[in-house]
Design brief:
362 residues, alpha/beta, eight-stranded mixed sheet, 16% strand
């Protein structure tokens, strides 16, 4: 069933707001990284909701997308919370900030052993390293096996990586609006964002922490991202060709259209909460990652995708489904007909919720 778009859905609110009060820090020791780098001391920021039951079988791990963080009850407020599909009154829910990020986990803006920001010296992180770090947090929390690992976009990739890297530690996986390897177009969009940062005059090779952040480049990278997150229908519904605070063109070369103002606002707002180096590190990590071989997978696998999602199109989920099915894995795939583009996985609290509840009840 196709639904009409409510333009108000695209107003950013608490979904992007981190929770400093509930955030905790896990010190997980040194890490040797897949690409050959080494971090002498790693910290991972995490948050939890609900209570772990006696036999420790109700733990759910929620992985965030590129610009997310540990506060999944905020950015996924239609899915995670009391009485919702990932019910914090039933499950013990854990969210972390990814290794390489900038919301409390070790990343380029963190201090090295001498107390200086890592900056350009921060080693290459791969998605496998992110999940390996998450596993150490799970060890500290006493969680041997997750009832569910879930996530959308980059979060879905991490969920699948959990099932492949630690097949005996995951019972169920839910990937939504995701893939098992980036296409050339997906890599291209990420590279355009990276180049906006790298070509900012303030980037300074990544060592800008004592001066000015490359805010203009990061802002443009975010604008590029927003263009890929929504659909043509959602942009048309929200903006059309409306002008911003005027009735006629001024022909001054500045912001004239409402959509221009929206992108500029979202880009500038992003620079206040995200680090440019983390953007580079995380987008490279998801571009490097590829999991074509699903044979190690033991968990039941749920896939959801969206008809209007052109940046993570439906055929990528179909490919995972068909490969898993050929291997005899327990797998479901549901294509959801919604018009909001890639952001449908954040905005839809009805269809995904029903599908997930049915999946977990089996």
């Amino acid at each position: 069933m196709r639904v009409e778009i409510d333009p108000g859905l695209f107003d950013e609110n608490a979904r992007t707001a981190p929770s400093e009060a509930g955030r905790q820090i896990a010190s997980i020791g040194a890490m040797d990284l897949l690409a050959g780098g080494h971090l002498p001391h790693v910290e991972i920021a995490y948050e939890t909701w609900g209570e772990l039951n006696e036999d420790r079988t109700n733990a759910v791990f929620v992985c965030h997308a590129l610009s997310g963080d540990s506060h999944c009850i905020g950015w996924w407020d239609r899915i995670v919370g009391p009485g919702l599909a990932i019910d914090t009154e039933r499950f013990f829910v854990v969210g972390t900030n990814a290794l390489g990020g900038c919301q409390g986990s070790t990343g380029p803006s963190s201090s090295d052993p001498e107390g200086n920001p890592w900056g350009s010296r921060f080693p290459v992180i791969q998605l496998q390293d992110m999940v390996a770090a998450q596993a150490r947090v799970a060890d500290q929390l006493g969680i041997e096996k997750w009832h569910l690992v879930a996530g959308g976009s980059m979060g879905g990739m991490q969920a699948l990586e959990w099932g492949i890297q630690f097949p005996d530690r995951v019972a169920n996986i839910w990937m939504t609006a995701s893939c098992s390897a980036h296409s050339a177009m997906q890599i291209g969009f990420n590279e355009a964002g990276r180049q906006a940062i790298l070509r900012d005059s303030h980037f300074n090779g990544g060592d800008y922490y004592d001066s000015q952040q490359p805010s203009n480049g990061l802002s443009v990278a975010r604008m590029i991202g927003h263009l890929s997150y929504l659909s043509d229908a959602s942009f048309t519904a929200k903006f059309g060709r409306s002008l911003q605070d005027k009735e006629n063109f001024e022909f001054n070369g500045g912001i004239e259209f409402a959509v221009e103002s929206y992108l500029s606002y979202q880009g500038d707002k992003f620079t206040q909460r995200f680090d440019a180096n983390s953007y580079l590190v995380l987008t490279k990590a998801i571009d490097y990652w590829s999991r074509e071989d699903l044979s190690p997978l033991q968990a039941r696998l749920l896939l959801t995708s969206f008809t209007s999602d052109w940046i993570y199109p439906n055929h990528q989920s179909v490919s995972i489904f068909e490969r898993a099915q050929k291997l005899g894995k327990e797998v479901e795939h549901h294509e959801i007909d919604l018009p909001m583009g890639h952001d449908s996985f954040l905005l839809d609290g009805e269809h995904q919720a029903r599908i997930l509840r049915n999946f977990l009840s089996q």
